[in-house]
């Protein structure tokens, strides 16, 4: 699907990519006819592990969710890759996990990982 995403990005105008976070939300967005979908890290974190988006969910967990979504989606999925989940080696691993899951693209936040004080 990366080639389909590249074609969408070449078009004039905007492409609407609603946030989805699991297989059922992916099915719903597909049935609505969107051209691409966005795996929202905050939604996935809340849905899969019941925690807010405070860098608690792991790259492996998000890649597993992405794999399910890719398997049921008829359109490209762009995924939240948080901060890459660490340093350069972690970023490379995250990209490899997402490629293996079949994600068409991702974004990595330009901030450093910071633990949340008082979070247990």
TrEMBL record:
The protein's GO terms of the molecular function aspect are: catalytic activity
The UniProt entry, under InterPro entries, shows: ICL/PEPM (IPR039556), Pyrv/PenolPyrv_kinase-like_dom (IPR015813), Pyrv_kinase-like_dom_sf (IPR040442)
Which Pfam family, an example, fits this chain? Answer: PEP_mutase
**Which region is the signal sequence?**
none
- Entry-linked CDD domains: ICL_PEPM (cd00377)
Question: Which SUPFAM superfamilies would you find in this protein's record?
Answer: Phosphoenolpyruvate/pyruvate domain (SSF51621)
| Protein name (Swiss-Prot/TrEMBL) | Methylisocitrate lyase
Q: Which organism is it from?
A: Hermanssonia centrifuga
């Amino acid at each position: 699907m990366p080639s389909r995403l590249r074609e969408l990005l070449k078009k004039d105008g905007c492409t609407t990519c609603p946030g989805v976070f699991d297989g059922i939300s992916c099915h719903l967005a597909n049935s609505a006819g969107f051209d691409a979908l966005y795996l929202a890290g905050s939604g996935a974190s809340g849905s899969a592990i019941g925690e807010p988006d405070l860098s608690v969910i792991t790259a492996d967990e998000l890649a597993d969710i992405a794999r399910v979504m890719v398997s049921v989606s008829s359109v490209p999925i762009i995924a939240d890759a948080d901060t890459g989940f660490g340093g350069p080696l972690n970023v490379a691993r995250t990209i490899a996990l997402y490629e293996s899951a079949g994600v068409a693209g991702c974004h990595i936040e330009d901030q450093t990982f910071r633990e949340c004080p008082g979070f247990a």
